[in-house]
User: What shape does this take?
Amino acid sequence: MTRKIRQPLTLIFLVALWIGLFLALLTFGDIKLQVGAVLQSLVGGSSDFTTNFVVWQLRFPGLLAAIITGGELAISGLILQVLTRNPLADSSILGINAGASLGVVIVMFAASAIGLHLGSSWLLVAAFLGAIFSAGLLMLASHQHSAIKTLLAGVAITAVLNGIILMLELEMNQFDFDKVLVWLNGSFWNLGTRFLLVQLMVCLGLLVAVSFLIPSLNGLTLGDRGAFGIGINVKWVRRCLMAVAILCATSAVLVGGAISFVGLMAPNICKRFVGERMRYWLPASWLMGCCIMMLAQFVATNAFGKSSLPVGLVVSAVTMPYFIYLLFSERFD
Amino acid sequence: MTHRTMVVCVALVAVVLIAILLDIFGGTRWYSVSDLWRPSTKLVGEVIWQIRVPRALAAAMTGMLLALAGLLLQTVSHNPLADPSIIGVNAGANLAMIVGELLGISLTILNAFWLSLVGALLAFVVVIGLSMSGHGFNPLRLLLGGTIFSGFISSISYAVSFITNTTQQFRVLLVGGFSGANYQQVLLLGIAVIVVLGGAVMFQTELTLLGLDSKTSVGLGVSFKRLMIVAVVLVVLAAGSSVAVAGNIGFIGLGIPQIVNFVHPGSFKSNLAAVALCGSGFMLIADLIAKTAISSVELPLSALSAIVGGVVLFIIVAFRKEAVGA
Assistant: This one.
């Protein structure tokens, strides 16, 4: 199959998968619904109270959270992979997710210590500062331009920050070990409508920003020199892209905690099918990221009967073997 | 042993003994020294002899075992960053214990030991398999693949205990700590210490030669295969028995040999005693901090050691040029 046909075909397949998972998440669960009824309820034409309640109140928030986090993590991973020219980069491996988590945990800890209730916008700021902090540490370590050293530095940063998170969280909820997992492994911790709507706005804003940066991203895949040659202000563009990547990861962490490896997997899988042209690679990665998260959410809520699993655990159990596979098929010189 | 190392070792033994005493007397309530032989009440005597003493001994021996395991791994893999927790051996032991308990094997102390040894061995074999590429053993792959494998195994541990609603029950295993230490565990740890320390001393010359580059060591008559098997057995025994008692405590095996080597650069042989003693001392102090830093709460020991060890790892990766063997 030539590339010209394969690229649009992949996109069409991914869109179909996206819609399929979207409906599956709304349809299946403890209360079984008909797909037709769900569709009717979605467009607002259903008068059945149970269907409306289950679809809009119980299942839609989780679905929305999955779409926000999956898409943002995938985009963030893609930008980081292009910027560092390292196919194994990802906001979770580089320690950015852990930094954002730590920011949120510290602010929550401080707020509960002085008895203050904080809005979600403060949490976003805290998460962003945390993410910038760990990204700064990473830059400090990556001055030697060795891809694998950068990754190891990220692993070290993650270990330290996760240790601090574990301490603060156990201090906060001594007997609620499950809450600790949110910021270490990821889970949708706040499915309130207002919170999610604000996050959706942030997510859409970031997507728009990314779409403006598509041409420069395309240029950067040629390498810094090539990009400079076709008239891109490399320094400025790199800074913008880094900021967007960190913001995407931050916003995703705020909704879903430290979910790992989605940002690694989605762009890598898509690259095999559509190549490095951003026009296809970017939307394909976004769709793929959403699909992975929706699938994980589906497994987390349905596969284990009554007890639902934190979605982040499902993601890491599924995606880490793929990372190991990638690691061993990749050559490091 | 030169005169200088002799002095250093005696000093370190003294430090470890003082740390053991501090760990016995320190805690949510500090006891006075005389309570040891003439307790003020019967309860105080029981707390000291049944809780504090075995706990301090367990901490001392676990620290020694983990530091030795790290030193062994670093020597055989020619890589200063290797450590049983980094490459997933500890996580494997952890998972084996959780799965064993859920399969209905009650976690008596003896069962916990063999389950965790089996888990450690399996994880080690898998990780070595992963790091074999087309061109033989690759230390960098061992590290990165091992770290990710370790994360993978621990998230499975979390998931399993989450589904079965046993996160409280396995809390000590998941976050590490010595709060349940008793004399039977101390006895088993003691056996492990004797075997590991004995093995390390017995093979110290060959292991030192292995630290040279591979052609030289083969030329001097070192059998790589045999030493590898010895090292695997010793590391599995050390890491497995520490996890069985204290849960998943990482990074001691990384940090201690690094720090000792930084202060006194030397071979396997010349640093062996210092590493073992520093491991004990560090673990005792960490345990004391975990018990006393915040009243009425015990800090998770795995977090404490991850913070210290992670900082060491970061500094090595970021600021030392030839550190990673790349």
Notes: The domain at 61-329 of chain A is CATH 1.10.3470.10 (ABC transporter involved in vitamin B12 uptake, BtuC). The mean pLDDT of chain A is 84. Residues 49-84 of chain A form the longest helix (36 residues). The interface with chain B takes residues 137, 140-141, 144, 146, 148-149, 151-153, 155-160, 162-164, 166-167, 170-171, 174-175, 177-178, 181, 185, 260, 304, 307, 309-310, 313-314, 316-317, 320-321, 323-324, 327-328, 332 of chain A (CB under 8 Å).
